[in-house]
Design a protein that fits this description.
Peptide/Ni-bd; SBP_5; peptide transmembrane transporter activity; four-stranded mixed beta sheet; Dipeptide-binding Protein, domain 1; Peptide/nickel transport system substrate-binding protein; alpha+beta; 3 domains; 22 strands; signal; eight-stranded mixed beta sheet; about 575 residues; Dipeptide-binding Protein, domain 3
Length: about 575
């Protein structure tokens, strides 16, 4: 997540984004490439009625959007039923307050830091219960390890510094006082969870009851949320098939024009374009590949966007497993990997501007914060990788790497998400480069990112080829990814120096100071051989040309960030 609203001025990532005028380039008799201002492209007035189906590429196993093992698919659906205080706009630089939910949200004091949220008097949950300070308090209690040490939450940032949370105006004003500065305060309370529902799910005021409601209740393992604070609410959910949502009758914002919004699960990417062609679905947001993009471009009556956002392809090592605990070995593996070659064989085939990503935290559009901190890692220089190993006492004997104690380095397991041809190719290339320095890599797929990153039996990994979906709240997001024992620290990384730099970055309110601290984090990660960034994943969004207000959003919120405004001409 990122430093406050004006922390970083990030260039719009929309391919060809220009002066705010919507532009369209028709591909002959095929699909139309839509360009324009990232935040307003494809704006229009919707007619009344109709249904839109949006494709989810992964099944949903956890409906708690604040949970530690949340998947992207959960967030995409949560956009339209679970209200957030702020959201990241498509241009990657704008953080917008949810004007339906809030009248205002302000920092009224810096010493101590005081945040005041004024909730709209119209804002209610779908059963008519007012959205109030109680809901803010529930999210705080569940996200603060001092209050709920057993709550399996994705982010504790900011919540672990709450000194007090006071309700006034009948619960419609929330005043939060922090014990230490938190630059990314706009990332807090996004989304909210209904406190009155939490009580039904086990929250009895005790830490154990709170944990039960959060870890188990809001997951809805065998059902689905029967409440809403957004424009839509659930009608049904069939695992591995579809979630059907209908307008929330208690919705307090701009009127919804659709009769229903369906999120259909299609895990086989090759089936998405045929489904769009046959009008079985109206929106797809797949990871682009050469044939898939060409098939989209050949469709009639379809618009598409191809943008470069905050989705990053990375190689994540698992430091919990003994074989990956030596930073020298990790650095050697990453040095032997040729990222340019991987790009040329995958994403470069349809995105000629794709280049190696040389920073884990920033992307090239985020100049001047973006710096190359990788050194030789990603270069494909097998000779330098070998020299790293031999300098540390390793040797290669008969094509097999022997560690300094004389023990052969065992085979390592590398996973990628099933049906992702690009990540499969990257994994196979990594295995080939590792073989050149005497390491055997067994490439295996997984059908669940959540179960893999939480190290479930049979799904665990030594290296994971994965997509990291960024937000504009950088200090918060990467504190959760890199701080010792943080909620999104899936690789088990720990560094006292990085912990200190991140704590300082969380308190920094000056963009330049924050950037220097976060680049210090990135430099230390390179020194420790933790995570190899590959490239920015292009974001392809294709939709029927009669849809309005549908647009790409290359942040964690994704295209449904404004799903309540979607409609049909």
């Amino acid at each position: 997540m990122a430093a406050a609203l004006a922390a970083l001025l990030v260039s719009a990532c929309s391919a060809g984004a220009g002066n705010g005028e919507n532009q369209a380039e028709a591909g002959g008799s095929g699909a139309t490439l839509v360009k324009g201002d990232a935040n307003t492209v494809n704006s229009g007035t919707a007619g009344k009625g109709g249904s839109i189906t949006y494709v989810l590429e992964r099944n949903i196993l956890n409906w708690n959007p604040l949970g530690a093992d949340i998947g992207v698919a959960t967030q995409l659906v949560a956009d339209v039923y679970d209200p957030s205080t702020f959201f990241s706009a498509p241009d990657l630089k704008t953080v917008e307050m949810n004007k339906d939910l809030l009248l205002s949200a302000e920092q009224t004091s810096t010493s101590p830091q005081v945040l005041v949220y004024k909730i709209s008097p119209k804002a209610v949950w779908s059963d008519g219960t007012p959205i109030s300070a109680a809901d803010f308090e529930y999210v705080w209690r569940a996200s603060d390890p001092r209050v709920c040490p057993k709550c399996e939450v994705a982010s504790t940032m900011g919540y672990d510094s709450v000194k007090s949370l006071v309700a006034s105006d009948g619960g419609k004003t929330v005043t939060v006082t922090l014990s230490k500065p938190f630059g990314d305060w706009q990332s807090m309370f996004s989304p909210l969870l209904p406190a009155h529902v939490a009580k039904k799910l086990g929250d009895d005021g005790t830490p154990d009851g709170l944990a039960a409601s959060f870890n188990e209740g809001f997951r809805y393992k065998t059902s689905f949320p029967d409440w809403s604070g957004g424009p839509f609410m659930f009608k049904s959910w069939q695992s591995n098939q579809a979630a059907t949502l209908v307008p929330n009758p208690k919705w307090y914002g701009k009127p919804v024009t659709l009769d229903s919004l369906i999120f259909r699960v299609i895990t086989d990417t090759t089936q998405e374009v045929p489904a769009l062609r046959n009008n079985e679905v109206q929106i797809i947001n797949p990871q682009p590949q050469v044939d898939l993009l060409r098939n989209v471009q050949a469709l009639k009556g379809v618009n598409y966007q191809l943008v470069r956002g905050l989705r990053k392809q990375m190689l994540l090592p698992n430091l919990n497993n003994p074989v990956m605990q030596d930073p020298v070995l990790r650095k050697a593996l990453f040095t032997a990997m040729d990222v340019k070659q991987a790009i040329s064989k995958t994403v470069g085939q349809f995105d000629p501007e794709a280049v190696p990503l040389r920073n884990r935290i920033y992307v090239p559009q985020q100049t001047p914060a973006y710096q190359d901190n990788l050194g030789d890692q990603g270069s494909g220089d097998v000779a330098k990788a070998t020299a790293l190993l031999t300098g540390a006492g390793y040797k290669i004997d008969a094509g097999r790497l022997i560690d300094p104690k004389g023990t052969p380095v065992p085979p390592i397991t590398m996973r990628y998400l099933a049906n992702d041809q690009i990540l499969q190719t990257i994994s196979e290339l990594f295995a080939a480069s590792a073989k050149a320095i005497g390491v055997t890599v067994n490439v295996q797929s997984t059908d669940s990112v959540g179960e893999t990153v939480t190290h479930q039996p049979g799904k665990d990994f030594d290296i994971f080829a994965m997509t990291w979906v960024g937000q504009t709240f950088l200090a918060s997001q990467y504190s959760q990814a890199f701080m010792t024992k943080a909620g999104l620290n899936f690789g088990g990384y720990s560094s006292a120096k990085v912990d200190d730099l991140l704590k300082k970055a969380l308190s920094a309110t000056d963009p330049a100071e924050s950037a220097e601290l976060l680049n210090g984090v990135d430099r230390q990660l390179s020194e420790d051989g933790y995570i190899l960034p590959m490239y920015q994943q292009p974001d392809l969004l294709a939709y029927k040309s009669n849809l309005v207000n549908v647009r790409a959003n290359g942040t964690y919120f994704g295209p449904p960030y404004n799903g309540g405004e979607w409609g049909i001409r």
